Amino acid sequence: MYNNNLKFALSSTRKFYVIGGIGVDHLEQLICGEEFDLKTRKWREIPNMFPRAEGAARRSTTEAPPLVAVVNNSLYLADYALLEVRRYDKGKNSWVTIGRLPEGASSMNGWGLVFRACGDRLIVIGGPTCYGVGAIDINACVPGERAVQWNLLARRQSGTFVYNCVVMGC
């Protein structure tokens, strides 16, 4: 797998997952994933781990990298096209929709939306921005067996769009 634009998520089982990236032809995003076991130091490819956009034959290279996070040894994905949050079922190699992204969360092909783990919470940073007028919201939820319930932690008026920012620490 050639991956120049990858995202990975570390789990408490001492494994991490690499999802997505750009194929060698640079024409489409990869849909496979890989699991690396830190104990055995071996890779395992997971076919079709990164879901395709609804109705799409392949993902566009203009889309943002996968928005993934690990909370309590569960892997989560923010599907910015459908505004859904999904949890990865490792046994079935499938994604289960567990709820919606926060009200007002929007992006441009995934750019402008941050999806991260912070302790036992999922954090979404982003919000509605239209041509220089808008706000950036910080929302959090504690994922579990119930549908996700987002809490607005903060809102900041902003005249600029958030592109591919990095969030460190909690």
Task: Please provide a brief summary of the model.
With 170 residues, the protein is mostly beta strands. It has strands at 7-10, 15-19, 33-37, 42-46, 68-71, 74-79, 84-89, 94-100, 114-118, 121-126, 129-130, 133-141, 151-158.
Which features does this protein show?
mainly beta, 170 residues
Topology of this protein?
Blueprint: E1 7-10, E2 15-19, E3 33-37, E4 42-46, E5 68-71, E6 74-79, E7 84-89, E8 94-100, E9 114-118, E10 121-126, E11 129-130, E12 133-141, E13 151-158
Antiparallel strand pairs: 1-2, 2-3, 3-4, 5-6, 6-7, 7-8, 9-10, 10-12, 11-12, 12-13
Query: How much helix, percentage-wise, in residues?
Result: under 10%
One letter per element, helices H and strands E, the order comes to EEEEEEEEEEEEE
Which residues form runs of ≥5 with pLDDT under 50? 1-6, 54-59
Report the C-alpha radius of gyration, rounded: 16 Å
What structural category characterises the helix and strand content?
A: mainly beta
Shape: globular
What oligomeric arrangement do these chains adopt? Answer: single chain
How many beta-strand elements?
13
Cα separation of the termini:
32 Å
Helical segment count: 0
Taking the sheet with the most strands, its summary is: 5 strands, antiparallel
Q: If you average the pLDDT, what whole number results?
A: 75
Give the strand content: 35-45%
